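cache lookup: miss for this entity combination. No prior model stored, computing from scratch. Input as submitted by user K.M.:
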Amino acid sequence: MIEVKKLVKRFGLKTVLRGVDFRVQPGEFVALLGPNGAGKTTFLRILASLSRPSVGQVSIAGFSLPKEAAAVRARLGVVSHLPLLYEDLTAEENLIFYARMYGITDYEIRISEVLEMVGLEKRRKDLIRTFSRGMQQRLAIGRAVLHDPDVMLFDEPYTGLDQDASSMLDGVLQTVAGQGRTVVMTSHDLARAEDLATRFDILSRGVIAATSTRDGLGNGNLLTFYKRALAN
Amino acid sequence: MAEQSITAPRHPAKSNYWKAITAIAWKDLAAELRSRELLSAMLVFSLLVILIFNFALELDIATRRSVTSGVLWATFAFAGTLGLNRSMAVEKDRGCLDGLLLAPVDRSAIYFGKVISNLAFMLIVEAIVLPIYSVLYNVNLFQPGLLLVILLGSIGYVAVGTLLSSMAVQTRTRDVLLPILLFPVVVPILIAAVKASGGYLTEAPMTEILPWLNLLIVYDVIFTAIAFMVFDYIVEE
Amino acid sequence: MQAKPTSLKVLDVVSLILLGISTYLALVFAPTEAIMGEVQRVFYFHVATAWVGMLGFIAAGVSGIVYLRSGDLKWDRIEIAAVEISLVFFFIAIVLGSIWARPVWNTWWTWDPRLTTAAVTELIYIAYFMLRQGLEDPDRRARFGAVYTLIGAVSVPITFMAIRLFRTIHPVVIGTESAEAQGGFNMTGDMKVAFFFALFAFTVIFVDLFWNRIRMGTLADKVEQLKLKVMQ
């Protein structure tokens, strides 16, 4: 579903990604972990077609980036730590806007479905300005699944959420992932990642330092695996 | 396999270009109608500028005629930057620009959508300023020729301004930078618009006004075309 | 450290010599103009420096377009060099123009099309540098610089035509339209020698400065690269 070969990303003279190889099968849920500055957000932005590779090949759902970016975008849902929502519009209006941007006709039913899924049906006519951060994140996920994407990218979705909000987000994430989508999620929260993901990749100093499926973790837990990967 | 919604097509057809443009324009107008922050700021600022000009230029009845078009266009030029700045800042601050870039449409649709909403804001403010100025200075500003000039001038201003504000909003100096970037480049519009407006107000012959109208149209066409070709380079990373 | 190429060193010397000869021709060799007197000599340098400004202007516009198509940062360095040189030389031309204008028309500034357009161009250049200053990413800096140069390059000729149109439809406010008041005068043979030699000399000086400046930019970039290598 996702294929990345020898990806290098430079910003001027600084190299952030130094030859990343990364493959994801359909239906996998990959947690991309790593210390700050490892390049996780940069990597995700390239997958999201928001940034171009300096060197290397990236293809998603069979379409290559950056040439076939438009085709990729139609199949991609992205949630970042910023909600990407317009404060002066209602939840419903935000979804209508994105539905139109994605070329979805007859969006009324779909919008209701999505609002139900993220538990915000009751707040559909409320301005985003009045939403808590947790609610905004849930709506953001709703926005991201509106066009029924095959692949979903989450960049630190739990940032700034309290316990309750995080638990709610867990539920939504599990529902969304359970619909057969391919998911890549970056996170600092190892415990959450351990619960949700089927595979763990560690990004360190611009390359994938280690990768393991959940079974592959064996007796140790994610934390030990993580520390060991970084120590190398 | 996957739970699929029966209503959403699994892979909807690539987003319609025109739909995206209207969606963006609608979104901006709907949001602004609710908060009215941008419009009120532009409006109040315009009135303040006119007030300042009143004291700065001692607009007695004799000089008023010759100076009106200049005062109007100076006002529009300054107030315009407020609108352009705000319009782009909204996208940048909440990361919404990424949201727009993620949509499966050609980038230029974003440009045109923004141009339409920016133009709408500018025209709304101009539509309110004109009658106020008319009343304050007892000048009839509602001539079709003058309105045409205002339309053409605003189009060119917004065409370049939207492009430049897309750049300025990504810098550290942001708000301050836009007028510095915009004004030197928009000089032809200001010259032509002031001359053409003045021509209509003093009932000059068409032969004097026509070259200025032509200049405005040429400028509008050239810069819209350039902005369309170049917008990609500004929003891509 | 790469040594300065010999041809560049030779060009440096040649430029200095040509500057010297040109100065002699303008200040000593050329006859004194009948009406304006000695101050007219400024004219030779005024036109020559404005000419260099024009060369820089065109070079900047062209290299901007080439950078956008190719993505090669070399063209960005060329563009910066061109803008800097044009900025300085237009400034000198404007100052010399003022020195010439004062005794002849009793004013420091005439709002004539060429001078005013030069002033607008200077403002565009300053805006250009301020734009670049506000950006961190070198690639973005180069792209935005190229776009703004393109916009400026198209706008300035239109500005010139607009101001000229302004002057033909509405008679000049300062001075009269006569050839003499415009600074026109008939050049004798010797004057023509000084005039064309100045143009030639300053073209060579332009190439010399341009080459030097581009070389400086390339070396500066290399220093940045080495710095990063040491820090990482």
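stored under new cache key. The longest strand of chain A covers residues 14-24.
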